[in-house]
User: Fold this.
Amino acid sequence: MFWAEKRADMETSVVDIFGEPRKDDPDRQTRKVTALFKSIHHGRYVGGDADTRFFILGLAPNAARISVRFWQVTTVGELAGHIVRHFEDIRIVHRGKQPEYLPLFRLLASTAVQGKEKNIPPNLAGDTLRAILEGCSYPRTLLTASVQRCRAEREITYPRAALIKGCLNRATRYSNPDQKEELTVSLDPDNTNPGYHLGRLFAVLEKIQEEANPGINATIRDRYYGSVSSTPVAVFPTLIKLSK
Assistant:
């Protein structure tokens, strides 16, 4: 539940920002988030509501009672900044037909078995929303669930990649404020980190194998990823030789 101390656009915008796009207006969410980005990047919140107090009450069912998960008193301007930070943290390159800003439900569903709401891990939704609203690290369970789904389904989807990027960047940012390097939205050709270069090389080698053997069941990712991560100097010479 949420409300402002006086009428403010944020009261209605929050629903569009976090909710699934409406079928009769699929671009509504994108417009709302884009407007929020523009207002923050210009150093103010559109509408002059920046200092208006905003109240957020997180509730959860508990047997026959309702329990309070969290209570937050903030301002419209501060809340807008935290929401924009969230979308910046999970922003990652994607295909043209996919949404620019992923709704919260779609992010959470990507961590669940078969993508079903009932399979979303308990407490994950509340903990994730609280992290977004307070501007703190995402719950560790969110990263774990995303990685586990990638391993189980052997597919790294757009929402999962976005979550993994966001979780790692926030964990680094808040645990080590002096750390400047973060995962970027897309490929960083100027990154000189040896691990980053080896990751790019490994992707190229796997692509070579897939091109040479269409429909292959198990690639070098399935067989060598663990050893490549731990002892790259022993494995990469073999992989390069095999690629030829």
The chain has a mean pLDDT of 86. Residues 36 and 42 are 10 Å apart (CA to CA). Strands lie at 2-4, 53-62, 65-75.
